[in-house]
Amino acid sequence: MAVIEVDRLHKRYGDTVAVHDVSFSVEEGEIFGILGPNGAGKTTTVECLSGLRPADGGRVSVLGLDPGRDRDELRQVLGVQLQESGLPEKMEVREALDLFASFYRRPADPAELLDRLGLTDKARCRYKKLSGGQQQRLAIALAMIGGPRVVILDELTTGLDPHARRAAWDLVERIRDDGVTVLLVTHFMEEAERLCDRVALIDSGRVVAVDTPAGLARQAGESQRMRFRPSAPLDEDVLRALPEVTGLSWHGPQIEISGTGDLVGAVTSLLARRHIIAADLRVEQASLDDAFIALTGHATPDAVS
Ligand code: ADP
Q1: Which atom of ligand 1 is nearest to the CA of 155?
Q2: What CA–CA distance (Å, rounded) separates 281 from 233?
Q3: If you write DSSP's letter for every residue of 185-253 in order, what string do you get?
Q4: How many CB atoms lie within 10 A of CB 201?
Q5: pTM of the model
Q6: If you compute the radius of gyration of the chain from its CA atoms, what whole number of angstroms results?
Q7: Largest Cα–Cα distance in the chain?
Q8: pLDDT at residue 242 in the model
Q9: The ligand 1 atom nearest the CA atom of 36
Q10: C-alpha 81 – ligand 1 centre gap (Å)
Q11: Domain 2-218 classification at class level
Q12: How far is it, in rounded angstroms, from Cα 206 to Cα 200?
């Protein structure tokens, strides 16, 4: 079931078209990524989705609600973490959670949320004294305090060190495991690759492609390589006859096969039929980075930021 539907969303600021007929839909229970370089129109898109900005054209619906018309109703079911928290520097963590909880009809338990996000010992700490990772965890807690069915997380891990970033990723996965649909805005390829079930690749206000990270890499036509040591003699011609295989070479006892599409599936099922084991198997897949360059014709978001 689609919980978010965006159909030809259009938004301009004066002469700048920030979002140019963007369409995608998000299924219940997904972690769906909106991935693109700075200025691509990601934040504008989610601001229109959450009712913070009126769209100039197109149709948007979240859980069947119209963000423009049903804003109050939407606030009860949609959690939003935007880039700027806007919290007063002197506000304490627990105070912020209690304040936000008061906005909702059925809020989550603040103490339990603090515990889950590892912030219990920071409950009395002022916002400005928190580390970057702790501030982001609080931002997640504030997005989750209303007990939402859908949560939007915008550039959650920007500015975090690798350890804090990984901790934030774990939290996002836990949110999804609780049945909450996650819309994740990011310009980090690695983040999208690691977390997202599907990704909308956005460039200059347009959707370039929507697919799984692996599907995007495949769409880009990038080749894959697998290398292994066959446990028994292998007939090269049978391998070469597979439509997925484009190249084959030997490196001592190891064979290296390159190809496209579902290369790994095709080769491993052929080996299985012949009772041959692929020892020391290594697979190199094309990455989302390769896909981004191939689909947009320019550098990856990480490089642009
Ligand atoms: P992203 O989130 O992908 O970085 P944004 O949605 O923030 O992209 O911005 C898309 C485009 O719209 C950019 O060219 C940006 O400069 C412009 N833009 C964003 N917000 C405003 C605004 N409030 N007024 C004018 N232009 C804006």
Answers
A1: 2
A2: 16
A3: EES-HHHHHHH-SEEEEEETTEEEEEE-HHHHHHHTT--EEEEEEESS---HHHHHTSTTEEEEEEETT
A4: 24
A5: 0.81
A6: 23
A7: 71
A8: 96
A9: 3
A10: 17
A11: alpha beta
A12: 10
Q: Contacts for 168-171 with beta carbons within 8 Å, 24 or more apart? A: 168/133, 168/136, 168/137, 168/140, 169/194, 169/195, 171/117, 171/137, 171/140
- 239 pLDDT exceeds 60? yes
Calculate how far, in angstroms, residue 34's C-alpha sits from the geometric centre of ligand 1: 15
The pLDDT, as a whole number, for residue 216 is 86
Give the residue, by CA position, lying nearest to ligand 1 atom 12.
18
Buried-state track 150-177, b at ≥16 Cβ within 10 A, e below 16: bbbbbbbbeebeeebbebbbebbeebbe
Taking the domains of the chain in order of start, what are their residue ranges? 2-218, 222-285
Closest ligand 1 atom, residue 14 Cα: 25
Q: Under CATH, which number does the domain 222-285 receive?
A: 3.30.70
The residue with greater pLDDT, 297 or 170, is 170
Q: The tokens of 159 are what?
A: 């500015």
Q: How far is the CA of 141 from the centre of ligand 1 (A)?
A: 26
Whose CA is closest to atom 15 on ligand 1? 39
Minimum CA distance residue for ligand 1 atom 14? 39
For a mutational test of ligand 1's pocket, the pick from 10, 11, 16, i.e. the residue with the most ligand atoms closer than 8 A to its C-beta, is 16
Question: Could you read off the pLDDT of 3-47 as tens digits, one per residue?
Answer: 999 999 999 999 999 999 999 999 999 999 999 988 999 999 999
Exposed / middle / buried, residue 297 (Cβ in 10 Å: 0-12, 13-18, 19+): exposed
Cβ of 301 closer than 6 Å to ligand 1, yes or no, is no
pLDDT at 254: 95
